[in-house]
């Protein structure tokens, strides 16, 4: 299969800057919700399962957006479609800020807006990988780590300021709606860049999801494991420690530290793996950190002297490195942007679908058992699946 090269007048560093601006918005809208989760439950009289359903619905729509990403990118051009995807994130954020006219209206606007946000994030994640392969292939690991770090910066800020914004603006819905602003700004910055890249010719079969490929299936297993661990803790880490006696503000700060720890892991692990193609070593090492932190939080949530910070740091290293390492290995082993988007679309689609059910499942288990051990066991099972995929993928190309 020959590769179709698209001429472009856009310099790689300009593309990278645009990607970083867009990526800031791809976790902030979701990360701003967990610190407010207990406030939402109290105000709307919602169960843990219903509160988890909000995040679950968003992540499930991320899965749907991921499956659709390759087709949308082929139809409109990955660069143009990427701007539209982040526009959906802005629209969903505004929907979540609908004035609260009663518990029922507030709940439905929260759920509806979260679904739109999730669809935009899912589309954008797939399109980002294709744009990196198309414009920044020679530094795929560094570029992938860079835009994932940008996502994490957005998530960190959103986690840290969610509760103060809620107090300052007069409600949790307005705190969530704030994140539409940087999304609009990023789309305005990206649009001139996208317009300078020609729309590719439609190629039909290359937009199909390559689910028959062994490497693609293993990538889906890997992304399922890392996505379940990430979105499980993203939703329930703050409520878990509120149950240990921490205030909502303290728990939000704990979630922010979890996000901050991910930043160096996301930037350095793919770069180290890229230097000598030692992907399996770095993937397994960082996963071990995440599993150790999860077990520690479950068995001894408040250790003497160090408190929960040590567990949060270890968990942050695991999920922080996991996602970009999964995208990096796809970039290495696919021939062009279209193939990279197709493989990423399937892997993230499966991963996000499984991860989307995780907050809901954990909430239901919490309602049924009245405690967290069963819910945390779901995350450990995901870690085992991720370890299986790492061993099978290894450091050499997978054929089949």
Provide the residue-averaged pLDDT. Answer: 84
- For CATH, the homologous superfamily is named as MFS general substrate transporter like domains
Alpha carbon gyration radius: 20 Å
Tally of alpha and pi helices = 15
Q: What is the CATH architecture term?
A: Up-down Bundle
Distance between the termini: 17 Å
Number of domains: 1
- Considering DSSP H and I runs of 4 or more, what fraction of the residues is helical? over 70%
At CATH level 3, the topology is: Growth Hormone, Chain: A
Q: How many β-strand stretches?
A: 0
Extract low-pLDDT stretches.
1-7
Order of helices and strands: HHHHHHHHHHHHHHH
Q: At the first level of CATH, what is the class?
A: Mainly Alpha
Protein name: MFS transporter
Keywords: Membrane, Transmembrane, Transmembrane helix
Organism: Pseudonocardia abyssalis
Q: What would you say this structure looks like, in words?
A:
- With 400 residues, the chain is mainly α.
- It has a single domain, classed as MFS general substrate transporter like domains (Growth Hormone, Chain: A, Up-down Bundle), CATH 1.20.1250.
- The protein contains 15 helices and no strands.
- Helix 10 packs antiparallel against helix 15 and helix 12 packs antiparallel against helix 13.
- The radius of gyration is 20 Å and the shape is globular.
- The two termini are 17 Å apart.
- The relative contact order is 0.17.
- The N terminus is likely disordered.
């Amino acid at each position: 299969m020959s590769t179709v090269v698209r001429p472009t007048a856009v310099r790689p560093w300009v593309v990278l800057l645009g990607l970083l601006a867009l990526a800031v918005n791809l976790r902030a809208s979701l990360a701003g919700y967990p610190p407010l989760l207990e406030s939402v439950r109290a105000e709307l009289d919602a169960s843990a399962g219903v509160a988890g359903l909000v995040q679950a619905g968003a992540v499930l729509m991320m899965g749907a957006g991921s499956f659709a990403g390759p087709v949308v990118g082929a139809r409109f051009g990955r660069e143009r479609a990427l701007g539209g995807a982040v526009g959906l994130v802005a629209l969903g954020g505004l929907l979540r800020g609908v004035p609260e006219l009663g518990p029922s209206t507030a709940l439905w606007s929260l759920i509806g807006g979260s679904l739109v946000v999730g669809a935009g994030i899912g589309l954008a994640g797939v399109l980002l990988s294709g744009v990196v392969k198309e414009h920044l292939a020679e530094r795929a690991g560094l570029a992938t780590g860079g835009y994932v770090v940008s996502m994490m910066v957005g998530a960190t800020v959103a986690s840290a300021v969610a509760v103060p914004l809620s107090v300052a603006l007069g409600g949790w819905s307005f705190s969530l709606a704030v994140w539409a602003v940087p999304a609009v700004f990023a789309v305005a910055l990206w649009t001139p860049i996208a317009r300078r890249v020609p729309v590719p010719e439609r190629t039909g079969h290359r937009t199909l999801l390559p689910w028959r490929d062994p490497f693609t299936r293993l990538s889906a297993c890997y992304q399922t494991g890392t996505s379940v661990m990430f979105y499980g803790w993203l939703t329930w880490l703050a409520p878990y420690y509120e149950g240990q006696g921490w205030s909502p503000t303290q728990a939000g700060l704990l979630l922010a530290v979890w996000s901050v720890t991910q930043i160096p892991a996301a930037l350095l692990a793919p770069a180290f793996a890229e230097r000598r193609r030692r992907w399996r070593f770095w993937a397994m090492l960082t996963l071990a950190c995440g599993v150790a932190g999860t077990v520690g939080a479950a068995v001894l949530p408040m250790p003497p002297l160090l408190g929960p910070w040590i567990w949060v740091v270890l968990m942050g290293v695991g999920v922080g490195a996991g996602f970009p390492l999964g995208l990096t290995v796809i970039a290495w082993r696919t021939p062009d942007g279209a193939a990279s988007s197709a493989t990423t679309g399937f892997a993230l689609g499966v991963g996000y679908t499984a991860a989307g059910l995780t907050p809901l499942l954990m909430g239901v288990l919490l309602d049924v058992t009245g405690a967290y051990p069963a819910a945390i066991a779901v995350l450990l099972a995901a870690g085992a699946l991720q370890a299986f995929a790492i061993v099978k993928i290894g450091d050499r190309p997978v054929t089949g």
